[in-house]
Amino acid sequence: MPRSERPLEADGSPLTQFAEALRALRQQVGGPPYRELARRAGYSAATLSDAAGGRRLPSLDVTLAFVGACDGDGAEWERRWHELAATLNAVPISHDGDTTESPYAGLAAFGTDDADRFFGRERLSDDLLARLRKDRFITVFGASGSGKSSLLRAGVAARLTGPVVLLTPGEHPLERCAAQLPDVPAGSLDADPRNLQLVLRQALTDFPDGTELVLVVDQFEEVFTLCRDADERGRFIAALAAASEVCRVVVGVRADFYAHCAGYQELVESAHVTVGPMTPDELRRAIVQPAAAVGCKVENALLAHLVATVHGSAGVLPLLSHALLETWRRRQGTTLTLAAFQASGGIDGALAKTAETVYDELDSRQRVIARNLFRRLAAPGDGTEDTKRRIGVDELDDDADLLVVLDRLTAARLLVRDHDGVEITHEALIRAWPRLLEWLNSDRDGLRAHRQLTEAARQWEALDRDQSLLFRGTRLALTRDAVGEAELNEGEQAFLAASTGAQDAEEALARKRTRRLRQLVALLTAVVVLLGVAVFVAVDAQRTAVRERNVAVSRKAIQDAELLRADDSLLAEQVSLAAYRLVSSREAANGLLSAFASNSRLPNGLADNPLPEPWTPPPTSAPPPTEGQPPAPPLLRPEDILYQVRSEYAVVAVSPDLMRMATASDVVRLWNGVCQSAKCELGSIDTKADRLALQPGNRVLAISIGQSTRLWDISDPAKPKWLKEFMHDAQWAAFSTDGRIVATGGENSPVALWSMENPAEPRRLGFLPLSTGDNGAAFGPGTLVATTSDDGTLSLYDVQNPGRAQSVATATRFPGSYRLPVFSADGGKVAAASGDRSATVWSINEHRQLEEVGDLQSRADLTALSFPSGELLRGHGRGTETAWALDIEKVARYICDRDGGELRQWDRFFPGVPRFSYC
After folding, report:
1. Separation of CA 190 from chain center
2. CA dist., res. 183 & res. 198, Å (int)
3. Which CATH architecture has domain 121-277?
4. How far apart are CA 698 and CA 717, in angstroms?
5. Of 4, 42, 152, 166, which one has the fewest beta carbons inside 10 Å?
6. What pTM value is reported for the model?
7. Are 867 and 831 in contact (CB under 8 A)?
8. Between residues 424 and 290, the one the model is more confident about
9. Is 799 left (phi over 0), alpha (psi -120 to 50) or beta?
10. Contact 56/47 with Cβ under 8 angstroms?
11. 856 three-class SS
């Protein structure tokens, strides 16, 4: 009779519970002997008995074979096995009292102290050492994860008998190199690359003759990824080449930086060594020998599984080493078992965990890029499993975030990069990472359509963008519906756009042919009528072409006139008038008024006269009148012009009757506005000012500075009296035309209206609704108020009832701001200055809406505006004033009376336009 099964220890551990469940499953099918189960499962009776023994976790394959022999649910037991493996993984098997250091390095590279546990690369290490005896400068290329760093450190540097300097370049490779050498001052290598050669010669003086130093530069790709200074990078490479004359130089660089290295002749001329994948025998040694060195062994099943899994895969050596390290921590006595490897998560589990960790560290845009990149790196199976897909560098756009994602995924060994392209490290990642599976399963039809689009775009580019390869019709429509714009690279987007454009062009051509056919039929039935229509269309087309030509020539002439204003203002006026007559656009009108204004600036006052000076008309430049013809009167009459103020007075206020003027510099001064002697100053107030405002009637002066405004009684200018201070963002003040209301406002407060019945105690009447008058306000005749603001808005309000003011109209410019509003005396126009040396004028129509009259340019910043008359606007600046006549026909008559309407150099300014008289 067969012996009875050994009872399990009742310790309640998860491993014991798992074994109990296996035994219970066997009893559910009648408790067959293990020999019978062995026949059904294909494993020995001892292996199956041990699986239910509770001493260690059986492998997943053995577990599923046991369950299958007992007619159990394989999917359910696979889930339970993974849960138990995760539990055992979270609590590693204890080896109390065992101080043996792990023979495996994990994800880290083997160092120079790890030569005793570095196996599998003996042949390549010997070859590289032999090359070092023959070649002085060697560049070692290898994919990420191929073991370059371990080879250079544990396989080469550790076996050299002479002095070795080992470094990584970092952000400043010359500084890093100096830091690794004894007694080398910082910065000494920057002056001349050959200084490194001198330093190395000096370092060898303490060694016997014939000793050669070896300089090993690991992770050489950092000179391209971290060092941003191209000059410093070139000096470092030149320094290495110079150093190879006195020592041996070995640099290790990732294969995907091969093209970068090809840009430097020193690296091209160096000897090249490539680190390829390990052979099966080398893998066996790398797996078994480290364990044997510490008296342990690797289970044959684990060894076979690892070799079969890793062989032929690029860049997985660090992941293999990490999985072996975790298996070592869970070893059974001195044996590394397949079950312990699977309990640790294995390579698949490590990949999934690493992938999820890297993904969580990306920002939102980089996560989208990672998703699209992995979808591009996978080929959906058609009845088979999904496989990895290598993509070339031509599929990758030049995007900073994409480079970050590639670097992080490559550093985590999830991707392998070289100078040709990118691919997933191992297809196990597709199976083991749930998030990637979800990305691939979410839209497989779209993924397949994307792959077809990628291939079509590549062929299209390869055949010089042959139009016959573009998608059309149903295929184009299905592709556009299936793929998302975010997933497409620049080449695919260009292909799709070209396909759409080609189809649109073909459809347009088809429609055009249909129209022509219809036109031909109509022509046969009504030849005479259609001939007339054809003539009309031709004439209209010619007129359109002439009109478009004239618009273009007029705009160019306006620009030319603007450049002429400083050197030849009279010619600028002629060109501007001709441009306006050619095309009477608002742009041309603005150019004409601005050109005329630039020739009508007031002359500066006498430099030694500190007082305002009345304007005197400049000598006329009009031609002498012919006999019997009266001379042309000046367009701008002296009585229409305000006073000129010297540049030291940046803040000015003039009363409406011109009887008073206030200026501000270090103090506020009051002047007799019409005085023409040297004794014009009437009084002063010892304060600075940002803005000034005079009340009509010359009784009150408002002085604004900072965030407050003060009212002063100036009935006796010689003895001004302080009346009242407005606080809380009262950065300016403006009086109504009858002086009975004052408005105040600022950047952070609405415009307030105050009664001036008692100037010593102004009474607040109300606020302007939704006002943004942070740059000032002005009252017009009647009940209108205009405000301006930094956001480029001029607003009109009706304040007939100050307590319930109504919004009337607004005008907005972008970009820019409006300030210094002013009304004409009749209230028919309003103007505002802007920060770009210009002033905009609007007329106010019968519906109280704003209609732009002109956007006029000045040569200087504007500190005030005034309307001497309804057809004249003056802009006041520091030391200059500009006069704009607003009646464009008067301006035209003045220019024609002065110059006779003949423009020299017509073809220079109006090429292709027949000469015409612009007067």
Report:
1. 34
2. 13
3. 3-Layer(aba) Sandwich (3.40)
4. 9
5. 4
6. 0.43
7. yes
8. 290
9. alpha
10. no
11. strand
Is 678's pLDDT higher than 60?
no
Q: Of 188-192, 212-216, 515-519, where does mean pLDDT reach its minimum?
A: 188-192
Whether the Cβ atoms of residue 141 and residue 274 lie closer than 8 Å to each other: yes
What is the C-alpha to C-alpha distance for residues 143 and 417, in angstroms, rounded to an integer? 6
- Alpha-carbon separation of residue 718 from 47, 610, 713, 775 (angstroms): 118, 19, 11, 31
pLDDT digits (tens, 9 = 90+) for 344-364: 777 767 667 778 888 998 898
pLDDT digits (tens, 9 = 90+) for 53-71: 877 778 888 888 899 999 9
Residue pair 615/602 in contact by the 8 Å Cβ criterion: yes
Read off φ and ψ for residue 273, nearest 5 degrees: -130, 135
More confident residue, 507 or 73: 73
Q: Rounded distance, CA 220 to CA 367, Å? A: 28
Sign of the dihedral defined by the CA atoms of residues 198, 201, 202, 203, in that order: positive
Tokens of 900: 């006779």
pLDDT at 628 over 60: no
- Looking from the CA of 280 toward its CB, the CA atoms found within 13 Å total 6
Contact 29, 22 (CB under 8 A): no
Say if residue 261 is exposed, middle or buried (CB neighbours under 10 Å; 0-12, 13-18, 19+): buried
Segments making up each domain of the chain, as ranges? 14-90, 121-277, 282-442, 650-767, 776-879
**If you write DSSP's letter for every residue of 592-625 in order, what string do you get?**
HHHHHHHTSPPPP--TT--S-B---PPPP-SPPP
| 127, two tokens | 């070859």
Closest CA to 151 of 177, 128, 167: 128
Distance CA 224, CA 230 (A): 9
Pick the CATH number of 776-879 from 2.40.128, 3.30.200, 1.25.10, 2.20.25: 2.40.128
β strands within 168-280, DSSP E = 214-217, 248-254, 271-275
583 touches 550 (CB < 8 A): yes
The superfamily in CATH containing domain 14-90 is: lambda repressor-like DNA-binding domains (1.10.260.40)
DSSP three-state, residue 721: strand
CATH topology for 650-767 is Methylamine Dehydrogenase; Chain H (2.130.10)
Q: Is 383 exposed, middle or buried (0-12, 13-18, 19+ CB in 10 A)?
A: exposed
Domains 121-277 and 650-767 share a fold: no
Q: Is the pLDDT of residue 574 over 90?
A: no
How far apart are alpha carbons 861 and 306 in whole angstroms?
80
d(CA 880, CA 647): 8
DSSP state of 379: E
Residue 485: partners with Cβ closer than 8 Å, 6 or more residues away: 493
CB 103 within 8 A of CB 117: yes
Render pLDDT for 202-250 as a digit per residue (tens, 0 to 9).
878 778 887 889 999 998 988 887 787 889 899 999 999 998 988 999 9
